[in-house]
Amino acid sequence: MGFFTAYIVLSILGLFSHYFYVYKGKRAENRAWVSYYGMIVVGLTLIFGILMYLDVLSFILDILNKIPWIQADPFQNGADYMWNSFRLIGINPNVVPEPQLHYIAALLFLTYTPTYLFAKMVSQGFFGRYIHEGGYVWGFLPRKEGEDNI
Amino acid sequence: MTQNNEKKWALVTGANGHTGSFLVHELVNNGWHVVATDLRQDSRKKLMTKETVFRSDLHYMSIDLEQVKFIAADLTNRDSLKELFSVDLEGSEYQAIFHPASLYDYFAELDLLRKINVEGLRNFLEVIKEYYNKKKKKMPHFLHWSTCGVYGEPEYEKTPDGFDIPADETAPYDPPNDYSISKKEQELLLKSFAEKNNLKYTIIRPAPIYGPYQTYGMYHIFLMFNKMGNGPVPHIYPRKKQLMMPMVHVEDLVRAAAFLANNPKAYGEAFNVVGDSTTQEEWMECMFHELGISYWIVPMWWPIYIACARTLYKWAEGEAVRAKKRNSRPKFDLPMADYITHQYYFTNEKIKALGFKFKYNDHAAGTRQTIRWYIDHGWLLSEDWHKDQRYFKEKVENAKEVK
């Protein structure tokens, strides 16, 4: 997961953050999981990204470089991977990780949390913000017969 | 004249319903004595499935008052209606008959609506006629509840700027749904009966009613947004296309009925009972603010808005069909969605010209009062209410099960 893929992943995972509110209908019980989930998702993404950028997880690159279409143009180091991770799906942005890009990389890491929070906000719309809310999902679900629908 | 003969007696149908219960209280507060009627509780519960769409524990205001005599009756059963005229009125007669009773359910089949609303009215009028003919007395003033829905979406006259001018009571009938069709048929029946039998009548055409204790209609809209927790407010361009929100507070409606009952100028007339209309976007902002939920204003060009609204309407249409197949009912009845695709805009000048003053003419005051009542009574949910009552109730129940 490089910089740009991290945004996509954080956005998608953020969209499901309030799904815990609807999971098995146990909104109150699952409430804390919304926070735990956020901390886990953003924390793991950040830790992975930073360690990767600092070349601590270079063994992953050894594995990735064995992929046939990567072999022709292998990742040089963690920073190269973080900037050009789209190469994994055949798209090469050809960003050369010059030292000046470190500042931008730091900024990008800082925007991980706001990205997740923005997606979480949208998730609140879908699944509700408080435990008594159901979000748009509730509006579109059919009425349950024989029980209170609130 | 004895003290008893000075008592004013009113007959109120549908007295256990939302409007009926408020009307009974209004009349009693104005010094009337009331014979109240409605279905027996078990039959009412079976028929009024609309009242339990979201919750089964809601109830209307009690009419258990000293000045009120309750007699159960069924509009579709003529014999039961006769009992309403065998009550001891302490030597007096009814000064007015208020008829708010009807099956107000957008999901009900037209046949059922006709059976209860139209044939029920026919039965009622025949019983009234029979009784007063036998007594050789004039029939009292009959106040009939209809709806602004009988107009459908009229052809509006325009201001020079192209804005709609609200329709008055002369707008032709064009009912857009089964309930309004049954109301139109009721009006025609009443007019023809009144002409043949010299009945003094007044037709009250309320806009969508809101107010405390309501379990259907506007309450469903409040509950929907309360439950969804957020919503968009479409800001339509060009501004002349913006849709209006006609509505009337239940207290104003029953005050208007009591006012018209005492006014000879109301005989043979129909009155729109609707507060000064505001735009849907203004009302939605006010509602969201009072509900304490987040909302965002979405500027929209009219063609895009109407395309989105029609798509939503189509989905609601599909939901209604699917619910029918399941032998259930949808969360929201289709005609409620009509308001996002049609312009409903009616004037209240006629009733104002008679001297009636609305208490909640300001939509914001009425909406605020209503939503606060719902929240205070736990009919709309709030975080604290949820924690205090439902959540802990569940915990207690679970604990009992464990024991």
**Average pLDDT level of chain B:** 92
Helix content of chain A: 55-70%
Q: What would you report as the Rg of chain A, rounded to the nearest angstrom?
A: 20 Å
Count of the domains of chain B: 1
Assembly state of the chains shown: heterodimer
**Share of β-strand residues of chain A:** under 5%
Rounded to the nearest angstrom, the radius of gyration of chain B is 22 Å
Your description of this structure?
- The complex is a heterodimer of chains A (about 150) and B (about 400).
- With about 150 residues, chain A is mostly helical.
- Chain A is built from eight helices and no strands.
- Chain B is an alpha/beta fold.
- Helix content of chain B is about 45%, strand content about 15%.
- Chain B has 13 helices and 15 strands.
- In chain B, the strands form five sheets. A seven-stranded parallel beta sheet of chain B has the order 3-2-1-4-5-8-13, sandwiched between helices.
- In chain B, helix 1 packs across helix 7 (about 250-260), helix 4 packs parallel to helix 5 (about 180-195) and helix 8 runs parallel beside helix 12.
- The interface of A and B includes residues 128 and 129 of A.
SSE topology:
The complex is a heterodimer of chains A (150) and B (403).
Chain A: H1 3-15, H2 27-53, H3 58-64, H4 68-71, H5 78-83, H6 101-110, H7 112-127, H8 135-140
Helix pairs in contact in A: 1-2, 1-7, 2-7
Chain B: E1 8-12, H1 18-29, E2 32-38, H2 41-47, E3 68-72, H3 78-82, E4 94-99, H4 110-135, E5 141-145, E6 157-158, E7 164-165, H5 178-197, E8 201-206, E9 209-210, H6 218-228, E10 230-237, E11 244-245, E12 248-249, H7 250-261, E13 269-273, E14 278-279, H8 280-291, E15 294-301, H9 302-325, H10 334-337, H11 349-353, H12 363-376, H13 383-402
Parallel strand pairs in B: 1-2, 1-4, 2-3, 4-5, 5-8, 8-13, 9-12, 10-15
Antiparallel strand pairs in B: 6-7, 11-14
Helix pairs in contact in B: 1-7, 4-5, 8-12
